[in-house]
Write a structure and sequence with these properties.
The structure holds two protein chains of two kinds. By secondary structure, chain A is mainly β. Chain A contains three helices and seven strands; from the N terminus they run αββαβββαββ. The radius of gyration of chain B is 21 Å and the shape is rod-shaped. The chains are: A mainly beta, B alpha+beta.
């Protein structure tokens, strides 16, 4: 699995802890890393992803439908799964403020093994680390 | 005149480019099942 994930675009380093079933992925600074591809690659390597958390830096944007998202690249953003923390960020939407936050991007639904990658991943904000 | 315009463009471009360059995923961690 380590080699399989290491071959994914935008991945710099992969660390696997067999004891607690944790996989740490350090992205390259090129911004090419794609969490959906990581989910697929992990599944293809024969293990099931129970949960995926990301730490990301970007701007809060509001789309034409009124949904809020974290823009982490020129063509990549994650819609928020609304909670108290994400609602607290709505006031800085479409501003120049850059936020760093940690959030859950995927959690395996009960009884399912294969991740459903046809549904866009939503970011559940767990912690707002920095606003600058 | 052209140099002044060019300098302004460079200044504006770098002001816009810096926040975009800062935007990125800095870390991903996964909890997996079925690993041996």
């Amino acid at each position: 699995m380590k080699q399989h994930l290491g071959r994914q675009s935008g991945v710099q380093k992969v660390e696997v802890s067999l004891l607690d079933g944790k996989v740490d992925v350090t992205p390259k600074e090129d911004g090419q890393i794609d969490p959906v591809q990581l989910l697929k690659a992990t599944y293809d390597s024969g293990v099931t992803v129970a949960e995926m958390d990301v730490t990301a830096r970007g701007k809060i944007v509001k789309d034409s439908s009124g949904n809020f998202a974290l823009e982490v690249g020129p063509s990549r953003s994650f819609l928020f799964a609304p909670n108290e923390l994400s609602q607290g960020l709505e006031s800085i939407a479409n501003s120049q403020t850059v936020v760093t936050l940690r959030g859950q991007l995927y959690k395996k639904p009960a009884g399912k093994k294969k991740p459903d990658t046809s549904i866009p991943l939503k970011l559940l904000v767990l912690e707002v680390q920095k606003k600058e | 005149m052209n140099i002044r315009k060019l300098s302004l463009l460079v200044l504006l471009g770098s002001a816009l480019a810096i926040p975009l360059a800062q935007a990125q995923i800095t870390h991903v961690d996964m909890r997996v099942e079925g690993m041996t």
